[in-house]
């Protein structure tokens, strides 16, 4: 008998939905199953699942085109198991009106077990529950079959894969015959295998993912402490540069002072450009005046000369016209 054993937490956190056709190992590599919560053995998956308030263990194994599902009542240890080939699964989905290929159906079942998608869920029903569900779906009242007829059927359980789509819910029932209590021989074998695996992990602590994770967290903590010390030293040096600044406002005042300096530099640059333009314009005007004086014909009198003595203001203007041209360097020095 094939016994899959993979441990998954009772309420695993939501994770990406496996792609259609992914096997369990492919989904695990893609992150659809948390490696810290589940591990694969013979492509099997085992989870704890609560059906109608009762805790159960659900095991799923896929090998080629064969699907095996086993449900165990955690309290009574009763087991129900069923094997389904690809033809059965595809015929079952075809009858529901929502056909699914074998690989896609297995991916949906894995996702429902891992509780990684809200669109697929599970339920566990007896034959009577299943009949009531069917009658309610077609609008027929409840029936009461004889006890002789229902006795073998009531021993079965039906694992219902519920696929919720827009405005509809599709139920895929998987019949699981009753197989009784667990075989003590099989349980002893499983216990022995688990002990061997545990001893192997203890013998190689360096390869244990928990040790790797602890080492990584310690390195991150060390880096964080170093960054904290560096920031504290920078803050302390800034406070020493500004001793009069209030506590906690050193960095803020440094930023304000830098902004003020930047603004003053921009204003100084603008003033320099303005003065350079003004000096250039004055120099050009001086040269134009000098050229005009130089081009005046000899003997040409200035209006008013010879008839009235020049006033102070007029003489001042004549003297200005008689000055030599002012150089650029002299004009800038006067400014």
- The CATH class of the domain at 39-139 and 152-183 is identified as Mainly Beta
In the CATH scheme, what's the topology name of the domain at 39-139 and 152-183? Dna Repair Protein Xrcc4, Chain: A, domain 1
End-to-end CA span: 106 Å
- Give the strand line-up of the largest sheet: 1-2-3-4-8
**Number of DSSP helices?**
10
Which of globular, elongated, flat, extended, rod-shaped describes the shape?
A: elongated
Q: Could you say which structural class the secondary elements and strand pairing correspond to?
A: alpha+beta
User: From the alpha-carbon coordinates, what is the Rg to the nearest angstrom?
Assistant: 47 Å
Mean pLDDT: 73
What CATH architecture label of the domain at 39-139 and 152-183 applies? Beta Complex
- Largest sheet features: 5 strands, antiparallel
Relative helix content? 40-55%
Strand coverage percent: 15-25%
Strand tally:
8
CATH superfamily of the domain at 39-139 and 152-183: DNA double-strand break repair and VJ recombination XRCC4, N-terminal
Order of helices and strands: HEEEEHHEHHEEEHHHHH
Structure description:
The chain is an alpha+beta fold and 335 residues long. Among the domains are: 133 residues, DNA double-strand break repair and VJ recombination XRCC4, N-terminal (Dna Repair Protein Xrcc4, Chain: A, domain 1), CATH 2.170.210; 38 residues. Helices cover 49% and strands 18% of the residues. It is built from ten helices and eight strands. The strands form two sheets. It has a five-stranded antiparallel beta sheet with strand order 1-2-3-4-8. Strands 5-6-7 form a three-stranded antiparallel beta sheet. The radius of gyration is 47 Å and the shape is elongated.
């Amino acid at each position: 008998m094939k016994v899959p054993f993979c441990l998954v937490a009772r309420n695993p956190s939501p994770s990406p939905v496996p792609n259609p056709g992914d096997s369990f190992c492919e989904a695990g590599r893609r992150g659809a199953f948390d490696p810290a919560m589940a591990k694969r053995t013979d492509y099997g998956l085992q989870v704890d699942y609560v059906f109608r308030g009762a805790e159960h263990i659900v095991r799923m194994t896929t090998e080629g085109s064969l699907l095996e599902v086993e449900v165990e009542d955690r309290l009574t240890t009763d087991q129900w198991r069923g094997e389904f080939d690809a033809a059965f699964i595809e015929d079952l989905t075809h009858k529901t009106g929502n056909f699914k290929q074998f690989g896609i159906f297995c991916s949906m079942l894995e996702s429902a077990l891992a509780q990684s998608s809200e669109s697929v869920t599970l339920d566990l029903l007896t034959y009577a529950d299943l009949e009531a569900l069917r009658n309610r779906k077609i609008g027929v009242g409840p029936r009461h079959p004889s006890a002789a007829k229902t006795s073998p059927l009531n021993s079965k359980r039906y694992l219902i894969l519920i696929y919720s789509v827009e405005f509809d819910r599709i139920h895929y029932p998987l019949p699981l015959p009753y197989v009784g209590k667990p075989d003590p021989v099989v349980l002893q074998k499983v216990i022995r295998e688990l002990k061997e695996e545990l001893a192997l992990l203890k013998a190689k602590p360096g390869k244990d993912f928990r040790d790797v994770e602890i080492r990584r967290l310690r390195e991150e903590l060390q880096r964080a402490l170093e960054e904290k010390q560096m920031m504290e030293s920078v803050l302390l040096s800034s406070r020493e540069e500004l001793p009069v600044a209030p506590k906690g406002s050193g960095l803020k005042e440094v930023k304000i002072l830098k902004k003020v300096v930047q603004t003053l530099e921009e204003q100084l640059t603008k003033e320099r450009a303005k003065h350079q333009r003004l000096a250039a314009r004055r120099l050009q005007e001086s040269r134009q005046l000098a050229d005009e004086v130089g081009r005046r014909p000899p003997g040409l009198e200035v209006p008013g000369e010879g008839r009235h003595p020049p006033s102070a203001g007029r003489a001042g203007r004549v003297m200005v016209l008689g000055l030599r041209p002012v150089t650029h360097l002299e004009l800038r020095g006067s400014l």
